[in-house]
Amino acid sequence: MCFAAAISSVVGMPSIQHAQPVVSLREVTRTYGQVHALDGVTLDVHRGAFTAIMGPSGSGKSTLMNVAAGLDDATSGQVFLAGADLRALDDDGRTRVRREQVGFVFQAFNLVPTLSAAENIALPFDLAGRRIDGETRAWIDHLVAVLGLTNRLSHRPGELSGGQQQRVAIARALASRPAIIFADEPTGNLDSRSSREVLTLLRTAAQEYGQTIAMVSHDPVAASYADRVLIIADGRVVGDHGRLSPQQISDLLIGFEVGAA
Ligand SMILES: Nc1ncnc2c1ncn2[C@@H]1O[C@H](COP(=O)(O)OP(=O)(O)OP(=O)(O)O)[C@@H](O)[C@H]1O
């Protein structure tokens, strides 16, 4: 069964609304001592967008993701995540917004090694003290089937390939239908075939389900799966493009790598 059919058969195809951005940054700065990791970033990310964030090493990509996800504090400016004004919240408030609205996928998979795949997928619900109701169980079962994990649910991460581990991490991130998934180099530890599978899954989740995804990557091929490519240099957004080919992305980046050298 294709991903779209599986999803629509469980929840119906949601309408994609572009009214309120999922993430909204206004003139955001983040300084570490003398370093301006973010230097006046203004940015909206809309529901259903698959956005790649690219730029030279040290340009501020991780800082941007961390600030937008409420993992790090902006020094100045405004940060809205799923309608919440993050800078007006205390640590507990930010943690709550993160748990309820954000999914994460990391390069190193970040699965708990002592838990099975099924337990890892359910972990965010356990941590949030949320019961998995019937509808959510059906959704997770479908995700597991579409991601090809049905026969791997009792396995621990150490018994799975890299690609399978990342698919478990993606199922975990999608399970709670978060407002946004932040993916930090999600294919950094995968071979090219597994990378293609993972990127296709992310793109399909955005296109067919309206799942908002922001992905930091160094890889022009990975970024070519996104429908928006942001280029960050010296803490600023210096490029904001629609879908681009890997070659177009490489050419853009070479200009900034040379500029940064
Ligand atoms: N916790 C921190 N303390 C001090 N400086 C920091 C901290 N985090 C980031 N920086 C600095 O902020 C700038 C942006 O870093 P950031 O990690 O966001 O860049 P990046 O684009 O994600 O880099 P990379 O591609 O190498 O991961 C860098 O100069 C970095 O050294």
UniProtKB/TrEMBL annotation:
Name the keywords, alphabetized: ATP-binding, Nucleotide-binding, Transport
Q: Does the keyword DNA-binding apply?
A: no
ABC transporter domain: residues covered: 23-257
**GO MF annotations for this entry?**
ATP binding
The reply on keyword Nucleotide-binding is yes
Q: Which InterPro entries does the record cross-reference, listed alphabetically?
A: AAA+_ATPase, ABC_transporter-like_ATP-bd, ABC_transporter-like_CS, ABC_transpr_LolD-like, MacB-like_ATP-bd, P-loop_NTPase
SUPFAM superfamilies in the record: P-loop containing nucleoside triphosphate hydrolases
Gene3D superfamilies (UniProt xref): P-loop containing nucleotide triphosphate hydrolases
Q: What is any Pfam family matched here?
A: ABC_tran
> What's the domain of life for this entry?
Bacteria
Q: Which CDD domains match?
A: ABC_MJ0796_LolCDE_FtsE (cd03255)
Matching SMART domains: AAA (SM00382)
User: What name is this protein filed under?
Assistant: ABC transporter ATP-binding protein
Species of origin reads Nostocoides vanveenii
Q: Name the lineage.
A: Bacteria, Bacillati, Actinomycetota, Actinomycetes, Micrococcales
